[in-house]
């Protein structure tokens, strides 16, 4: 099987992402135009999805890959801001219903109706009902709305294009490469304190549209973290699997170089995030994949050495790039300081453990429903300050991903979710007996589920469209 990464559409898609980001900034700066463009974009997405549901899915994924919390463009309804992600979800969902009606094929729905997925949906419905009864409609909706993306599962099953995964891979690489450029442009602007640029405006745009966080580390060095950088880690797993399994005869020279450059940019992106969750997730996932290949008898030491050498080289180049780009030469000191800044998040996680455990034990089997709040005492300076000297904080959102799920839908809900994830993983992870027919992309996306599950220990993604979107990609129906 051959792979072609560089196509004529790459420039168009890349330019489209740049225009989208520029439009996001302009509409944030001039919010009076935001509602109009929001409606125009959503209407265009609806028309495109009616014509081709597959293209509607690509629009959804493109927004996920770069949009973090989905508020790049908002619809202002009084004090409430409706995210573009919700708008895209609604129109693609409606288009999906239209395509299902056109096909009138109940076998499609039966195929989607897997045992564990059905049980998960039942547990989620129980969590929603309990949430509404105990915690109120508003709290329940804002806590559970991320799971709405599971309703798009039939849409991915309706995709009968054998090139779907390669198209998603191309889109992912373009998005991650753009995200790296955006991250390093922000890093350069803040690290060099550009006098001709109002950095406060950039900071507020990133913060208000919930793209991520910009944190001062030391001297002229800043940490740029965005939730969508998760897909930089996903891209690393995918590219390494492709490099390991695909021989050079299957990839043209220019595509090979594009792959290597994309790996470098993905590593540089994840490095700049200074996210321990991503770093630990990558290391553990690579170790687990190594064990899988070893146990299954697919370990080729020569290929492994080549793949790891390329990976190590990109890590070295990324470290050099990061510190030369910011003119920060005390790498060890900066890394230490950056990791110190993440201690606040670590302390918050530790502070959540006992209160979460006690709350879970109150309703261990079926949970307390979505929107259930827990109060804990935090030493995080973002919480414990002059306005809140005690550090007491009440929330329904928690850093411990699996504990958050158990709190809302209980141990039975968590087990159903994990079983459903394992079912989806097995769909693409079966190596089989024929080494020639292995599809590295299917395998890479399957292994990215392992990455997602590891990261979810420390950072909640399985209850968020960013993580659920990755699961849906793996569920597509191969013709």
Automatic annotation (TrEMBL):
<protein>
    <recommendedName>
        <fullName>O-antigen ligase-related domain-containing protein</fullName>
    </recommendedName>
</protein>
<dbReference type="InterPro" id="IPR019810">
    <property type="entry name" value="Citrate_synthase_AS"/>
</dbReference>
<feature type="transmembrane region" description="Helical">
    <location>
        <begin position="445"/>
        <end position="462"/>
    </location>
</feature>
<feature type="transmembrane region" description="Helical">
    <location>
        <begin position="116"/>
        <end position="133"/>
    </location>
</feature>
<feature type="transmembrane region" description="Helical">
    <location>
        <begin position="36"/>
        <end position="61"/>
    </location>
</feature>
<keyword id="KW-0472">Membrane</keyword>
<keyword id="KW-0812">Transmembrane</keyword>
<keyword id="KW-1133">Transmembrane helix</keyword>
<feature type="transmembrane region" description="Helical">
    <location>
        <begin position="82"/>
        <end position="101"/>
    </location>
</feature>
<feature type="transmembrane region" description="Helical">
    <location>
        <begin position="12"/>
        <end position="30"/>
    </location>
</feature>
<dbReference type="Pfam" id="PF04932">
    <property type="entry name" value="Wzy_C"/>
</dbReference>
<feature type="transmembrane region" description="Helical">
    <location>
        <begin position="304"/>
        <end position="325"/>
    </location>
</feature>
<feature type="transmembrane region" description="Helical">
    <location>
        <begin position="257"/>
        <end position="274"/>
    </location>
</feature>
<dbReference type="GO" id="GO:0016020">
    <property type="term" value="C:membrane"/>
</dbReference>
<feature type="transmembrane region" description="Helical">
    <location>
        <begin position="280"/>
        <end position="299"/>
    </location>
</feature>
<feature type="transmembrane region" description="Helical">
    <location>
        <begin position="405"/>
        <end position="425"/>
    </location>
</feature>
<dbReference type="InterPro" id="IPR007016">
    <property type="entry name" value="O-antigen_ligase-rel_domated"/>
</dbReference>
<feature type="transmembrane region" description="Helical">
    <location>
        <begin position="140"/>
        <end position="158"/>
    </location>
</feature>
<feature type="transmembrane region" description="Helical">
    <location>
        <begin position="226"/>
        <end position="245"/>
    </location>
</feature>
<dbReference type="GO" id="GO:0046912">
    <property type="term" value="F:acyltransferase activity, acyl groups converted into alkyl on transfer"/>
</dbReference>
<feature type="domain" description="O-antigen ligase-related">
    <location>
        <begin position="263"/>
        <end position="418"/>
    </location>
</feature>
<dbReference type="InterPro" id="IPR051533">
    <property type="entry name" value="WaaL-like"/>
</dbReference>
<feature type="transmembrane region" description="Helical">
    <location>
        <begin position="164"/>
        <end position="180"/>
    </location>
</feature>
């Amino acid at each position: 099987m051959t792979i072609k990464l560089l196509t004529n559409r790459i420039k168009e898609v890349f330019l489209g992402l740049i225009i989208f980001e520029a439009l996001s900034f302009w509409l944030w700066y001039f919010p009076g135009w935001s509602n109009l463009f929001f409606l125009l974009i959503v209407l265009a997405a609806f028309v495109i999805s009616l014509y081709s549901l597959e293209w509607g899915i690509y629009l959804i994924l493109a927004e996920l890959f770069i949009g973090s919390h989905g508020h790049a463009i908002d619809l202002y309804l009084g004090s409430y801001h409706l995210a573009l992600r919700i708008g895209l979800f609604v129109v693609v969902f409606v288009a999906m219903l239209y395509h299902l009606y056109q096909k009138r094929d109940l076998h499609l729905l039966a195929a989607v109706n897997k045992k564990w997925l059905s049980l998960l949906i039942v547990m989620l419905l129980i969590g929603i009902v309990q949430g509404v009864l105990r915690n109120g409609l508003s709290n329940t909706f804002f806590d559970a709305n991320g799971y709405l993306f599971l309703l798009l599962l039939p849409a991915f099953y309706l995709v009968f294009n054998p090139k779907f995964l390669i198209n998603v891979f191309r889109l992912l690489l373009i998005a991650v490469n753009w995200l790296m450029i955006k991250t390093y442009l922000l890093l350069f602007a803040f690290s060099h304190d550009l006098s001709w640029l109002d950095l406060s405006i950039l900071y507020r745009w990133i913060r208000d549209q919930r793209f991520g966080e910009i944190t001062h580390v030391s001297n002229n060095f800043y940490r740029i973290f965005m939730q969508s950088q998760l897909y930089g880690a996903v891209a690393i797993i995918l590219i390494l699997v492709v490099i390991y399994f695909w021989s050079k005869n299957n990839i043209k020279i220019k595509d090979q170089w594009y792959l290597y450059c994309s790996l470098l940019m993905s590593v540089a992106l994840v490095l700049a995030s200074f996210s321990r969750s991503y770093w630990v997730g990558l290391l553990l996932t690579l170790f687990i994949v190594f064990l899988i290949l070893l146990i299954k008898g697919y370990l080729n030491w020569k290929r492994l050495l080549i793949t790891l050498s390329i990976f190590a080289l990109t890590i070295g180049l990324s470290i050099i790039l990061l510190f030369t780009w910011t003119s920060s030469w005390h790498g060890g000191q900066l890394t230490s300081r950056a990791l110190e800044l993440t201690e606040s998040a670590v302390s918050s996680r530790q502070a959540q453990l006992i209160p979460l455990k006690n709350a879970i034990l109150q309703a261990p089997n079926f949970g307390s429903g979505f929107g259930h709040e827990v109060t804990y005492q935090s030493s995080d300076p973002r919480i414990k300050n002059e306005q809140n000297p005690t550090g007491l904080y009440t929330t329904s959102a928690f850093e411990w991903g699996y504990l958050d799920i158990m709190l809302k839908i209980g141990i039975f809900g968590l087990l159903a979710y994990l079983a459903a994830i394992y079912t989806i993983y097995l769909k693409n992870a079966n190596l089989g007996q024929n080494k020639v027919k292995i599809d590295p992309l299917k395998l890479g996306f399957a292994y990215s589920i392992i990455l997602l599950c590891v990261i979810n220990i420390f950072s909640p993604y399985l209850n968020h469209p960013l993580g659920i979107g990755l699961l849906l990609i793996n569920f597509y129906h191969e013709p």
